[in-house]
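During the second half of the funding period, the structural biology subgroup turned its attention to how the target accommodates small molecules. The most pressing case was NDP, which had performed well in the primary screen but for which no bound structure existed. We therefore specified the complex as follows and requested a full 3D prediction, including the ligand pose.
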Amino acid sequence: MPKTVLITGATAGIGKACAHIFAENKYNLIITGRRNHLLEVLKSEIEQKYPISVLALNFDVQNKKEVSQHLDNLPQTHKNIDVLINNAGLSLGLTPIQNGQTSDWDTMIDTNIKGLLYVTKIVANLMIANKKGHIVNLGSIAGKEVYASGNVYCATKHAVNALSQAMRIDLLPHQIKVTAIHPGAVETEFSLVRFGGDSQKANKVYQGYDALTPTDIAQTIWFTVNTPAHVNINDLVIMPTAQASATYWHKNL
Ligand code: NDP
Ligand code: 8X3
């Protein structure tokens, strides 16, 4: 029987790269995101390339009702979720706390923490019923350290770090694996979103060194979900070789 992975935020970056790697390895996919046209393009691209089935679910993880409408009513064909990748997330702004936009704070908290929780609650119960499962949470180096003006984004990723540990304890009796992946800089739409569409500012983040690629992270996730049944990778920090911490870099500018 083919396995199934649910990937939140599969319309771009790390989530999209995960969709490709799991499809290539014969998983059926549930892909989610807010941009429906991108979900549809990815679905048809993947279904043309690989002999698997893709269920595209267009919803905002911040919206508890939408999350439950979609995930409480999964078709029988996609209910047996083996792997959940809690990837949907974003940073908005890079601003000292005293100047922060409270609407940006709300969006980051509602997406990175509350959205992840809404999805996890439903899928964890499906996994418990199926007596198996693996949850992979996308944390960040921002969940291990804080840096200037990163305040609320860092706080949300610290929460993902804490929640990953908490999930591992609560799901232990059900033998559901929980892995947290904490990347440094990965070149995706992340910085474009953070800087409100300012591509010059966004491109600068990735200049003078080789950033991680979304495929680097997808391959790492693929590795963590393929360890033997008795082995779990709890926590993994992965950085570009040119980055030693959130603030130490070796750049050739
Ligand atoms: P991208 O901006 O390229 O992709 C983010 C994905 O999340 C998109 O598919 C987007 O889809 C989705 N998303 C955002 N908000 C929502 C929402 N409210 N509901 C549903 N989907 C949503 O960024 P990355 O691929 O880089 O980011 C993926 C994860 O990795 C994030 O959690 C990020 O914090 C984390 N991360 C990224 C790092 C980096 O340097 N890039 C480093 C460390 C961690 P759509 O817009 O269609 O809804
Ligand atoms: C994304 C990496 O360093 O911009 O989580 O916070 S960083």
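Two results from this model are relevant to the next phase. The chain has eight helices and seven strands. Strands lie at 4-7, 28-33, 54-58, 83-86, 134-138, 177-183, 235-238.
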